[in-house]
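Handoff note, outgoing to incoming analyst
You'll be picking up this chain. Sequence as last confirmed:
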Amino acid sequence: MSGLILDIEQMSACYGRVEALIGVSLQVAHGEIVTVVGANGAGKSTLLHSILGMVSPANGRITFAGADITRWPIHRRIDTGLVLVPEGRRILVSMTIEENLLLGAHMRQDKTAVRREIDGIYDRFPNLAQRRNHDASCLSGGEQQMLALGRAMLAKPQLLMMDEPSLGLSPLFVSKLFELIREYNREGLSVLLIEQNTANALRIAHRATVLELGRVALEGNAAAIAGSARLQEAYLGGAAREVTEIDHKRKSAGRRS
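Most recent structure output, in case you need it:
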């Protein structure tokens, strides 16, 4: 595949003796949305943490923007344009909305451009503009997610990674969020999206990878995967299938007795 912004080759990662990722390969092309879906414990967040350098891969290689970043420190990856919106948003609720946004641009020297971009974020999110000098604790969960996204955009990402961005949001904000991701993508942003809201993630993504117990179970065109029976099978996971089969056998035995 040509024009890749991210190329992960046969990456494995462990927590002690537990293998969280096993030989995972994944690519994101410039201007593409790729989503990674799977059940809890499939390894989705570990994948993002490994890409960002929070977890050191046991083996494999990570290439970002043409450079091998496998052993780079976190700050160097971020400086190169690899930006994560973490699960739970992680905004600083004791700081103002304006201060949270400025944190996203703390490494930048182009102050005039930063000011222009913050004003653009306020135009996009009027609720943030109205309370720019208020502590971020005054925001709803959906508004906090918009603030986290705006903060990430001020870091000038080449690749924006999002970890469960719709978690805990109302249906209205979920719809707004996914439309916003698509809007930023139309403007040229590359996105790697980790989501349990599978239907919405597959609806906006170009390609998808399904993780099952740390391994790639399925990958390809997002629309094709959305209609695949293998998707539901992967969501069960090997351990869950085993429990289901045992439970079924017990019930059958009970009926026979």
